[in-house]
Amino acid sequence: MGPASTTGEPRLDGLILVVEDDPLILDFLCEILQEEGFVVQPQASADAASAYLEQHSSEVCLLLTDITMPGKLNGADLANQFGDRWPDKPIMIMSGFETPKSSGVRHQVSFIKKPWALGQLLDCVQSALKPRSPL
Fold it and tell me: If residue 62 lies in a helix (H) or strand (E), which one and from where to where?
């Protein structure tokens, strides 16, 4: 494989906002995605991610969030805020306990159940980032 990173060909026009309260999973997710050539922005809570979006929403091209998190907002709240404000940006949700439906997510999202396999996760990210065909 050639050195893809030096050609100035980023995989995405923007970054993936990764929101997960477990520091091990957060590190792992960011590492995997960076190895795939994505730019990531880790946030350890939906509250922190929401604050980050206030400043940097234009740079974010995908929200990848866990549902169950401590704090004022959980991942479902974050996904709803994100989808309300940036309806054209994709959202990907992962959870071991909830589903987007059970947690009250109102938007079309990609969902992956924990524990996920690496290939599943990357497939899900890839498909979330494909331009959505108009219904």
Answer: strand 60-66
pLDDT of residue 132: 61
CATH topology of domain 11-129: Rossmann fold (3.40.50)
**Helices 23-35 and 118-129, interaxial angle, to 10°?**
70
Phi, psi (rounded to 5 degrees) for 128: -65, -30
Query: Each residue of 63-76: pLDDT tens digit?
Result: 999 999 999 999 99
Measured distance CA(15)–CA(65) in Å, rounded: 14
Lookup: tokens for 91: 């959202």
From start to end of 1-135, where are the E strands?
Answer: 15-19, 39-43, 60-66, 91-95, 110-113
Residue whose entry in the numeric block shows the structure tokens 């704090």: 71
**pLDDT exceeds cutoff 80 at 39:** yes
Contact indicator for 90, 44 with CB cutoff of 8 Å: no
Residue 5: is its pLDDT beyond 70?
Answer: no
